[in-house]
Design a protein that fits this description.
Layout lengths: L1 H8 L6 E13 L4 E3 L2 E6 L1 E6 L9 E12 L1 E6 L11 H7 L2 H17 L2 E6 L8 H10 L7 E4 L4 E3 L19 E3 L3 H11 L4 E5 L1 E2 L8 E2 L3 H13 L3 E6 L2 H10 L3 E4 L5 H10 L2 E3 L2 H10 L10 H16 L18 H9 L4 H15 L16 E5 L12 E6 L2 E2 L1
Parallel strand pairs: 1-5, 6-7, 7-8, 9-10, 11-14, 14-15, 15-16
Antiparallel strand pairs: 1-2, 1-3, 3-4, 5-17, 12-13, 17-18, 18-19
Helix pairs in contact: 5-6, 6-7, 7-8, 8-10, 9-10, 11-12
Bound molecules: zinc ion.
The site of zinc ion has 4 residues, from loops.
Amino acid sequence: MRILMILLLATAAPALAEPTLLKPARVFDGETMHAVWQVLVDGDRIVAAGSDVTAPAGAKVVDLPGATLLPGLIEGHTHLFLHPYNETKWDDQVLHEPLALRTARATVAARKTLMAGFTTARDLGTEGAGYADVGLKAAIDQGIVPGPRLIVVTRAIVATGAYGPKGFEPGVAVPQGAEEAGGEGVAAAARRQIAAGADEIKLYADYHWGPGEPSRPTFSQAELTGAIGAAHDAGRRVAVHASTPEGMRRAVIAGADTIEHGSEGDAAVFKLMRERGTVLCPTLAAGDAIARYRGWNGAEPAPPGVKGDRDAFRLARAAGVAICMGGDVGVFSHGDNAREMALLVANGMTPIEVLRAATTVNARAFGLSDRGRIAPGLLADLVVVTGDPGKDIAAVRQVTMVMKGGVVQ
Ligand SMILES: [Zn+2]
């Protein structure tokens, strides 16, 4: 990595000053793995890719023996303003951590995400940190701090009284992890968040009302339909947290673009998702992490929560639902995003299917037509890893170079 960095940094800033031909052992273009491919980058764009690309006069040629070149990976579900719950409980992060502390920590989370090969990330809620994601995104875009290209949702929207932190003297207003709304106010909250900078809207269609209770649907069909319609009218996609079949069903009927978790989903609701083209972000890594925080050592049989996630994931796959790659990072460490990729493989997807999920599928699900593949005209967001992640997904952790917009990070 050091040698490569020196080779490339010499001509970086702000973008590669001359065309650069990258010659890895293989290239994953977003769909399939190709042996003996080359990729030509000029400025912030990919200008050519294929088996017979030659370097134009004056181009720099970078040999990457043994390495795989991939599109910059896309994290589908992160919370840059959270850090692992075994460090600090979620309640304490929301209630006791100053906004400036959370923002400073989020800049580090953003850097770790980028250097793990994720050049784009969808942040699905600041969890009590207000609109700080809009400012963080601006800081990254202005080159003030390193990080992925962000899709932000700001505060997210929950049904009044449904979310947390909970368990305090009734009648005392306690700061919440998302914006509370009800009735026509749900659509109004969506519009307010869009005006404040939200690229997507995040809604919670179900939640548990008290500790130990199962999740139950929160928003009515009319509330979901109104809010999702308002977001779509504004050209914003909508991610919906939903675990119960009824919460999922209402969200899908209302036009949700992605369902987050879906951990109690049944065959009927996954069939509906398949018919409507709704994408599932199964977030297997979050359930796995939480079970381990509660003492699970990874041995089988897995605890009920983990088993439920796996069963639902398999039903979704059997129904043909498109799978997003998003781990709910923040519940576990930023930079460990590949944890979800390993679990997707462990539960039945092939490594190539998982690589597609983290590139083309996520790009399509989030409406990003300028990335997610290696093809002429697309952004030069690229990652180089040692080994072949098409055979062993663990290779995605062996990152030796990250390029964002033609600039080596
Ligand atoms: Zn989440």
